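Sequence design from tokenized structure. All designs in this work follow the same two-part layout: the structure record, then the generated sequence. An example of the structure record is given first.
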């Protein structure tokens, strides 16, 4: 009976696709085959961040720039975190998926985005012993209904087989959305906005700090600062995507 129902479900889905073709969430074109969210053109257009990278913030250098080395910004001011990495650039279907997941609560995007986070965890974990998500303030959490970074952090923790801390790091002050601010304003906006409420859980740990997008690094840098102050041995930042200069791709 279950097999019959399964077959009927597949037939019904095929008929629905025939009558009402699914469209790419990024460009709006019809989807073909088994694609669920994005067309092959948009998937092929995803920009994977290959080396060389900055050894600090992880931003890619143009090809031919030699081995990994520190960028000028990290030389001027060493980040509080030990390194940051993201597998893909923030744009196209990746940007669409993050926005749909984060702002429109389309949790079906989690599978698409979670794959990138698992890839990042496998490549850059560096012997992690604890995974921590960048927290939301309780006011924004009530409005949004979930913390997208926590979902991603869970995927990283499962991939690595290490514990996930749910509340060792908290956001103690409500802040303006970073997207509306320039780099210097972003840094001021998050200064003092985070606190480690369970230092015993953090002390001596090699922490993976997870967020969805690395833009200027202000938020994750402030999180790393308080984690280090609480005794974390190291802090590596992993995000799904990174905002980068197109000349570096």
């Amino acid at each position: 009976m279950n097999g019959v129902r399964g077959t009927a479900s597949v037939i019904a889905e095929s008929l629905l696709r025939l009558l009402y073709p699914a469209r790419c969430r990024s460009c709006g074109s019809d989807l073909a085959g088994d694609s669920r969210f994005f067309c092959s053109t948009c998937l092929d257009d995803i920009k994977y961040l290959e080396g060389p990278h900055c050894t600090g913030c992880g931003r890619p250098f143009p090809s031919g720039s030699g081995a990994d080395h520190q960028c000028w910004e990290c030389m001027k001011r060493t980040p509080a975190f030990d390194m940051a990495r993201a597998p893909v650039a923030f744009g196209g279907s990746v940007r669409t998926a993050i926005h749909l997941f984060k702002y429109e609560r389309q949790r079906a995007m989690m599978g698409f985005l979670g794959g990138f986070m698992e890839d990042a965890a496998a490549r850059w974990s560096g012997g992690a012993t604890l995974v921590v998500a960048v927290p939301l303030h309780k006011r924004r959490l009530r409005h949004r209904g979930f913390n997208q970074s926590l979902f991603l952090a869970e995927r990283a923790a499962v991939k690595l087989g290490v514990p996930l801390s749910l509340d060792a790091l908290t956001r103690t002050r409500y802040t303006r959305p970073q997207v509306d601010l320039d780099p210097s304003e972003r840094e001021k906006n998050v200064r003092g906005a985070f606190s480690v409420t369970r230092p015993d859980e953090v002390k001596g740990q090699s922490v993976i700090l997870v967020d969805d997008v690395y833009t200027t690094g202000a938020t994750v840098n402030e999180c790393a600062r308080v984690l280090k102050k609480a005794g974390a041995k190291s802090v590596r930042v992993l995000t799904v995507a990174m905002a980068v200069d197109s000349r570096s791709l």
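Residues 1-45 form one domain. We note this feature because it recurs in several other targets discussed in the main text.
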